[in-house]
């Protein structure tokens, strides 16, 4: 299950987040993808502690990752009476996520170039 040491984002991870953001990804989603990609299986609470994101920010970003089918989520009993903890793992390799972003940007570029072509024809 989870490691007892908490993975924290380093400078390379933060650069990865920045690049994802520069490509149009929301910051919190970029942070989660980066963290899950390097930390592996982790709880929401560990994500909050390691990334500085608040619980609502993690929940909202996780909703987006679930919608893209990029994460697996399961519940684990924590012992005692409370709610079980949600445990998350990235189920899509980072290389596949990057490929999806690349394909999306290539489509956007093709659409923009088509519109430029149409504008040139109109002049």
Automatic annotation (TrEMBL):
Domain of life: Archaea
SUPFAM superfamilies: Winged helix' DNA-binding domain
Protein name per Swiss-Prot or TrEMBL: ArsR family transcriptional regulator
């Amino acid at each position: 299950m989870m490691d007892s040491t908490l993975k924290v984002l380093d400078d390379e991870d933060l650069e990865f987040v920045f690049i994802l953001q520069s490509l149009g990804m929301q910051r919190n989603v970029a942070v989660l993808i980066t963290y899950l990609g390097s930390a592996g299986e982790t709880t929401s609470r560990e994500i909050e502690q390691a990334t500085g994101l608040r619980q609502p920010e993690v929940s909202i970003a996780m909703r987006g990752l679930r919608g893209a089918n990029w994460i697996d989520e399961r519940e684990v009993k924590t012992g005692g009476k409370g709610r079980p903890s949600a445990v998350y793992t990235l189920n899509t390799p980072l290389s596949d996520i990057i490929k999806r972003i690349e394909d999306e940007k290539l489509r956007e570029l093709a659409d923009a170039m088509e519109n430029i072509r149409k504008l040139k024809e109109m002049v």
